[in-house]
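Anyone have tokens for Alpha/beta fold hydrolase? Sequence:
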Amino acid sequence: MTTQTIPVETGAWVRRFHPGGQDAGHRLICFPHAGGSASFYFPVSRALTPGADVLAIQYPGRQDRRHEPCLDSITELADALAAQVRPWCDRPVTFFGHSMGATLAFEVARRLEAEGTVLHGLFASGRRAPSTVRDERVHLRDDEGLLADITRLAGTDTAVLGDPEIVRMILPAIRADYRAAETYRYQPGPALTCPLFVLTGDSDPHVTPAEARAWERHTTGPYALRTYPGGHFYLNSQAGAVLAEISAHLG
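Reply: yep, here.
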């Protein structure tokens, strides 16, 4: 493993909402879903700090980074994030990614493991296995069609989607993320060696039971599948159970 300079402060890509955990023995890095932002994981940070140092990824093109160009490729995002995350691997690190964030966390983990950095674990939530493919083209729809899909999945407050000014501001990032997620194609390579925990909702239209089980082939380490009541954003109603699962792993 190459020697890294350990960061003192977070920056544009990495956020820490509760500094009380920065001296904890374990670090949790969270990757948002398509159209999501680092603030989605504020409740996770609040719940797990100070027992863990919780960091959240902020993609370009949203919130305080809204004036930066979006990246619409998982490969580009993973390449950029591997460089950003690498210095934070000075202690046991676990990734948590939801939806597009699960795919992205997996690809960043692959890059880090190729360099000799092995994660303590990876939680892949609300996303089919990388090697499974669907021909999805929501990112090619007009604005109304794109917003209709977001509303259907209930991933964004519908009151926010009813504000035309906010919609105009967030739509480019949402479309770029959808394009990244839908055009991603897994490139065969070595499986991960870290523990892999797959979390899914039992009525998620984007993940079938078979697609969730297919994650098992992507690690040679321990594997576990947990199914919760709910749809794509089962996290909203099952937060306590999911946090307990993460806490058990970190503990």
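Residues 87 and 246 are 22 Å apart (CA to CA).
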